[in-house]
């Protein structure tokens, strides 16, 4: 199952203040642990919400409302995400708990959300495993 670890923006992130070298090292170690476990699928970080635009549809069929950032922290802007493969919500949560804290302000929040898998679509890992199995079966048949 795939899970997205949504990292919520902190005041420091929104101000454009990057973490120090200690945080960068801790993040690199976390990323390496995910890669070594074969769990890391993607990781991306966003610019502060001041560079964004929010599109809202206040009424069905109505005209969209565009609002330039920055967005209030109460609306939960996202700083980035990590997409992982995990066997359960508990495993995904355990990975999120290992994520280094970006600052010591006590305002860090991470949401762990399972992706809604669409029926009939298979992940690239499933496709790769199926192709490898077909290759092995073909080799065994030739023996």
Topology of helices and strands:
Layout: E1 2-8, H1 11-14, H2 21-36, E2 40-45, E3 53-56, E4 65-68, E5 78-85, H3 89-98, E6 110-114, H4 124-142
Antiparallel strand pairs: 1-5, 1-6, 2-5, 3-4
Descriptive overview:
This protein is of the alpha+beta class and 143 residues long. It contains 4 helices and 6 strands, in the order βααββββαβα. Strands 2-5-1-6 form a 4-stranded antiparallel beta sheet, with helices on one face. Strands 3-4 form a two-stranded antiparallel sheet. A hairpin with an 8-residue loop joins strand 3 and strand 4 (65-68). The chain is extended. The model has no long low-confidence stretch (mean pLDDT 87).
Outline:
This protein is α+β, with helices and mostly antiparallel strands and 143 residues long. Helices cover 34% and strands 24% of the residues.
Summarize this structure as a short list of keywords or feature phrases.
about 140 residues; alpha+beta; four-stranded antiparallel β-sheet; two-stranded antiparallel ribbon; 6 strands; extended
* Content of β-strand: 15-25%
Figure out the total of helices: 4
Write down how many β-strands occur, each being a DSSP E stretch of 2 or more residues: 6
* Alpha-carbon Rg, integer: 20 Å
